[in-house]
Design a protein that fits this description.
Layout (H helix, E strand, L loop, with lengths): L2 H11 L4 H8 L3 H8 L7 H11 L3 H5 L8 H10 L2 H15 L1
Length: 98
């Protein structure tokens, strides 16, 4: 997991500057910048403070979105189709999108 990229994404999604996030978390702005530049790695305690300031749990911070439920089952079923059936399915899906 790219902690810096995730931190930047969450911070920007909330419209926070590095200064605002640092103030809310009780850490220095230079430390937040160093984390985002990958110059420093936060401790779990510091990351917890940053997550609290961003309104997310540590679990949510590290939870990378996966495929929607049922997508794997759908792909398995598509793979079992013959090439001709897959082509027919594509035509059907194209028609649905129109």
């Amino acid at each position: 997991m790219d902690v810096a990229a995730r931190l930047i994404a969450l911070r920007e999604a909330r419209g926070y500057t590095t200064n605002r996030l640092a103030n809310l978390a009780g850490v220095s702005q230079s430390f937040v910048r160093d984390i985002e530049r990958r110059a420093k790695r936060p401790t779990v305690e510091t990351l917890s403070l940053l997550c609290d300031a961003l309104g997310v749990s540590l679990r949510d911070f590290f939870d990378e979105p996966g495929p929607p439920p049922g997508e794997d089952a759908l792909l398995r079923r598509i793979r079992r189709l013959t090439p001709r059936q897959q082509e027919a399915l594509l035509h059907f899906l194209d028609a649905l999108e129109r």
